[in-house]
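tool_call: predict_structure(chain=1)
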Amino acid sequence: MPRPQPILTVDAVLLTLEDGQLKVALHERSADPFKGIKALPGGFVHPEEDSCALDTAYRVLRQKTGFIPRHLEQLCVFSGPERDPRGWSVSIAFVALSPIEALRSSGSPVFSYARVDALPELAFDHREIVAQAVQRLRSKAGYSSLPCALLPERFTLRELQEVYEQVLGQALDKSSFRRKIEELAFVTPSEEFTAGTHRPARLYSFQGYTAFDRSLTTRK
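tool_result:
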């Protein structure tokens, strides 16, 4: 008699910034188990069409939400007999980042947003998955450009610093932060400026993920 196979899924922790707070996108489950409970967007791996788990994550997000995040990377594997009442299960978790403007403009009715430090009841072990995703983002923020994926296409240096401060949960010295931005050159200045202000600020763009050989953060 063949042994039962583990349930194999992916789950995406989609992080964004709304009203100056780090939040995670959730949806309400429409079927058991945990019907009516908030959960991360996720789904089953389809071996016949998914060439890898990353493909599964993109497919699930596209099919369930119509949305593709700006940044998506594998986080960790969660597994065991207790995490899903349907049986022994494996979830390959991903962390995704997106500006809130992009999420809103997608028109997806799926998402609600919860503060990562004030989560509602979540299905399965999704609370633990969210906690590890937030830890990953905050850890990488100190030595990489990863928080830039939470910004719109064009942003000011002030907005860039605010995003780092919101992700890290600490204030940063303005002059030191801007000096390091210039030295590391991971954002590109444009010829555009903000409008409707007394002192227009130059707008910058994010050119992709970059890791640094030094810390970007300095406490006041």
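agent: The first strand starts at residue 7 and ends at 18. Proceeding to next step.
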